Amino acid sequence: VCACFVTEYILFFILVTGVENPPKNPAVIVIAEIKDLRQTFEIEIWYGDVNAWVEWIKYTVQSLNHSNCYACASGQPVAQVEPLPLEWIKDSQGMQCMIALYQEKTAWGNEACKSLSLLFPPIPEMDAKIPPAFSMAIGNHTACLSRQGVKATRPIGNFSLCSETLNITEDLAGNYSGLGIPRADLWWYCSGKILWSTLPSNWGCTCALVQLVIPFTLAFENTHRERTKGA
């Protein structure tokens, strides 16, 4: 794995070896070999945990199923909290599937939930990479849960941008306490600067399922050479 650092805090790095002929202009870049992404290295991007930032970019690109490419982003990328494009009113089955997938890896084998299970597969807790920085949530959020009552002894926030919320305060609403299986590309956002990969069993208040968007560009080497006429 190689990392290329460009002036003005622009970071380029190759996620998987195999890209030929990287830029070699020493006036523009310095190429450093990184054997382990957890290895500490110094670049001026103003983040205390540089490796967390690199791991986040790597994870994002790999989730897009790309390799042999350059991932290019500013030295201070800020992930944006975006609404999950599911709604309680128009897609109640999909939302119920999402809740079930946080309770059991395959939603107990429910075929109606299979596509969402493949889209947001379960991941180990240690692999839930929170970016070093993210912006406050914006937009209209339609995938929200609200929980109060005697069992909700740990208030973790009261998200105010919810337009569609399932109130699960009543015990008859079902079991929404065991939301303990992290899913790829999904987070719970309740308030402030905290993202949750799962919710604690005694969680309370209002939270939304969200996704994170980070701006970057993928650059691929063109391995196909155009033939000249008569060749």
Summarize the SSE layout with pairings.
Elements: E1 2-6, E2 10-14, E3 29-33, H1 50-63, E4 69-74, E5 80-83, H2 92-103, H3 114-119, E6 144-147, E7 154-158, E8 165-167, E9 187-191, E10 194-196, E11 203-213, E12 217-220
Parallel strand pairs: 6-8, 7-11
Antiparallel strand pairs: 1-2, 1-3, 2-4, 4-12, 5-11, 6-11, 9-10, 9-11
Tally the structural domains: 2
What's the helix count?
Answer: 3
Spell the H/E element sequence. Answer: EEEHEEHHEEEEEEE
| Radius of gyration computed on alpha carbons | 21 Å
Count every beta strand, where a strand is a DSSP E run of 2 or more residues.
12
First-residue to last-residue Cα separation: 37 Å
Shape: globular
Give the % helix: 10-25%
| Global structural class | alpha+beta
| Beta-strand content bin | 25-35%
Mean pLDDT: 73
Subcellular location: Host cell membrane; Host endomembrane system; Virion membrane
Signal peptide: 1-18
InterPro entries: TLV/ENV_coat_polyprotein
Membrane topology: Single-pass type I membrane protein; Peripheral membrane protein
